[in-house]
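look at this record:
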Amino acid sequence: MKVTPVVRVQSEDFDVQLESRTLAEGRKDVGALVTFTGLCRDEAGTLSALELEHYPGMAEAELTRIAEQAVQRWPLTGLTVVHRFGKIPPGENIVLVVSASAHRRAAFEAADFLMDYLKTRAPFWKKEHLVDGDSGSWVEAKSGDEDDAARWSS
């Protein structure tokens, strides 16, 4: 059975339990469900919000392309990717990956792969808004993110 990943880019928050339940409820072929939720952190109390911008259409297409690679690479029974945009305060959700498979290794690896590629390839730009009222800087990519993604090519 071909799995079609569910990919959404949205400004509103998401419900991790609902998204997980949607992938697994009533299914007898799901033996493992792995979720990763990325949250906005406060950077030691200096950050009031993280603003995420994207190109509508392009972001969805790239997330779908990455999700389809995961479905081809691992024997998944379901996959959901949700990425938010807009101004997100510390403690709120930013990104969700839910991977379902008959076996844990495939579910873990697919979720890990997706996050590595979302961090390096997804067309989102992040700007920090600081507690002191200053509009902070655009966040640069970290070299470690590229190293993490490179391991999937070998």
Observations:
- The mean pLDDT is 94.
